[in-house]
Amino acid sequence: MPAISVRDIEVKDDATCLCSDLVAGTHGRGFWILDDVTPLRQAAEAAAAKNAYLFKPAIGIRIRFGTNDPPRGRRNC
């Protein structure tokens, strides 16, 4: 992001993806989006930790493609 005047700033929390995005609007009609700022919310705890700090990872989603394919040897007629 260039050094420019930021007029509007908002943290958008989205419950569907369990993530937060930082949205900044500039005076020159531009906007910037920083995806998933959830690690920044843990930064204070990480700075206060005397030993190594492990950040809590986001929830993983596993998707399998092609699970509804017809069995081998069968043709669609």
Structure overview:
This protein is α+β, with helices and mostly antiparallel strands and 77 residues long. Helix content is 13%, strand content 27%. It is built from two helices and three strands. A three-stranded antiparallel sheet has the order 1-2-3, with no helix packed on it. The mean pLDDT is 80.
In short, what is this structure?
Helices cover 13% and strands 27% of the residues. It is α+β, with helices and mostly antiparallel strands and 77 residues long.
Characteristics:
flat; 3 strands; 13% helix; 77 residues; alpha+beta
Q: Calculate the mean pLDDT score and round it.
A: 80
Order of helices and strands: EEEHH
- Categorize the overall geometry: flat
Beta-strand percent range: 25-35%
Strand order in the sheet with the most strands: 1-2-3
Largest beta-sheet characterization:
3 strands, antiparallel
Tell me how many strands there are.
3
Percentage of residues assigned to helices: 10-25%
Q: What's the number of helices?
A: 2
Rounded radius of gyration (Å)? 21 Å
Instruction: Tell me the structural class.
Output: alpha+beta
N→C terminal distance = 56 Å
| Sequence stretches where pLDDT stays below 50 over 5 or more residues | none
